[in-house]
Amino acid sequence: MSELIRLCRRDELPAEGQAKEFSAAGRTICVATLGGKPLALDNVCPHRGGPLAEGTIERGKIVCPWHQWEFDLATGAGTPNLKAVPYPLKLVGDDVLVEI
Ligand code: FES
Fold this sequence. Notes:
Layout lengths: L3 E6 L9 E6 L2 E8 L2 E6 L13 E3 L2 E3 L6 E3 L5 E2 L6 E2 L1 E4 L2 E5 L1
Antiparallel strand pairs: 1-11, 2-3, 3-4, 4-9, 5-6, 6-7, 7-8, 10-11
C-alpha cells in the first residue's frame, strides 16, 4: 500500500536541469526538474548504490556519478537494463508530496 508523504516545499525544488537529494520515510530520493516538472527516483543507484542526485542530467536521463549508467527520470528505465525506482510526485499548495 502506498502513501503520500510531504517531501519539501515547492520553492526547495531544484532548478531546471538540476537534481537534488531529499529524505522521506527513511529513504533518500533524487528529485530533478525537467521541462518545468519535478520527477523523482530513489536516490540509490540500482547498479552499486551510487548517489543519483549527484549525477548530471543529459537528454532526460540522470547519469550516475559512479559508473555513468543512465536512468530515465520519468520511468527509471536504465541503460544497461537495470531500473531505478520511480516515485510519483504531487504538488499541493506550497508542498511537494511523494507517493511511497
Ligand atoms: S553505482 Fe551507479 S552506475 Fe554504478
